[in-house]
Amino acid sequence: MKKVITMFLVISIVLCLAVSCGKKKEEAPAAQASTAESAPKQTYSGKVMLYSSMQEAQLQAVEKAFEKAYPGIDMEYYFASGGKVLTKMTTEAQGGQIAADVVWLGDPCDYEGFKAKGWLEKYSSPEEAHIAKPYIDADGYYTAGRLVTMGIAWNTTLVKDEEAPKTWNELLDPKWKNQIIMTDPDQASTTKYWMTAMMQSEKYGENFFKALHANGTKLESGTTATHNRVADGSYKVGICLDYVSANLIKEGSPMKFHFTTSDVCTMTSPVALIKGCANPDNGRHLIDFLLSKEGQEVLVEQNLVSVRDDVKMDVDTSAIAAINMPVDFVKLGENMKTYQGMFNKIWNK
């Protein structure tokens, strides 16, 4: 009888141990998960300064999304026309150091000048895996942050859709005399790029701008002002940007916009890190965010065109590329001041 009791007790102890071990094995994943959850997350601090010629509402959207993605970093920005940003950078560089960490302008040719002056720091973001090579500087100094396209906008209360100019040469029609507005290329990097690309083209060149001036085309001091002058009916037609027009149309302005049916002028609007900047790590974080899927989706929500291959958009970038105006960036950069001088002479500036 004692043997039976002893045997029973042994079996009970073994069963209890087995159940106990089984529970520990089952609970192990939970313990591991708890450890993973308690692992310290990456922390961020400090600030980052962006110089940009984008519209302020878009910069505010970027700022909000970036600070949410990188809590602890205070994003600041200087917003002005491309010409004013360039002036500010030049003045600061002469003083010893540009105060920005990241620069984001419309004209890719400006960045070749920045490279030559030693203003940029090389940085290849891991997000470039989703960006086409033509949009990335071969030397690793800058990467396209968005695509910007110049086209033609018109006031719908003054111009019927079927009558709106569809090509650059149609702007030379006498029926548009004194009814065309464009931004001064000295004030906007996007318009400067379009103007210099047109000057470089054998199809257009200086003669196109002489004819455009003879047709009474007027200059505005800023990109936003140019678009507003079309929206308020001051001018029937404008040489305008896709995203600025889209914002006004979305707000209910009586205007429309389309790309030209040939020789479309698209700019890559690069982002780059400033050499010797005060916050290089945060500058890299900002560039990573701007090029990320999340960051590019923020831009698309703001009517901008993404450079990534995994972001959904209404714009058919391949169709635009098929009729894009060929541009030699190197020669464009080398002759930019010459083209600007030719333009200013035509407009008696």
Describe the structure.
The protein has 349 residues and is α/β, with parallel strands linked by helices. Helix 4 packs across helix 12 and helix 6 (205-214) runs parallel beside helix 12 (329-346). Helix 2 (56-69) links the parallel strand 1 and strand 2 (74-79). The strands form two sheets. Strands 1, 2, 3, 4, 5 and 12 form a six-stranded mixed β-sheet that branches. Strands 6, 7, 8, 9, 10 and 11 form a six-stranded mixed β-sheet that branches. The protein contains twelve helices and twelve strands. The protein has helices spanning 2-38, 56-69, 82-94, 108-117, 189-200, 205-214, 223-231, 242-250, 280-291, 293-301, 317-322, 329-346, and strands at residues 47-52, 74-79, 102-104, 120-121, 143-144, 148-155, 180-183, 218-220, 237-241, 255-258, 265-267, 270-274. The chain folds into two domains: 47-147 and 268-315, D-Maltodextrin-Binding Protein, domain 2 (3-Layer(aba) Sandwich); 149-266 and 339-346, D-Maltodextrin-Binding Protein, domain 2. It is 46% helix and 15% strand. The model is unreliable at 1-39 (pLDDT under 50). The radius of gyration is 28 Å and the shape is globular.
Largest sheet: 6 strands, mixed
Report the total helices.
12
Work out the helicity level: 40-55%
**Fourth-level CATH superfamily of the largest domain:** Periplasmic binding protein-like II
| Average of pLDDT | 88
List the helices and strands and how they pair.
Blueprint: H1 2-38, E1 47-52, H2 56-69, E2 74-79, H3 82-94, E3 102-104, H4 108-117, E4 120-121, E5 143-144, E6 148-155, E7 180-183, H5 189-200, H6 205-214, E8 218-220, H7 223-231, E9 237-241, H8 242-250, E10 255-258, E11 265-267, E12 270-274, H9 280-291, H10 293-301, H11 317-322, H12 329-346
Parallel strand pairs: 1-2, 1-3, 7-8, 7-9
Antiparallel strand pairs: 3-12, 4-12, 5-12, 6-9, 6-10, 6-11
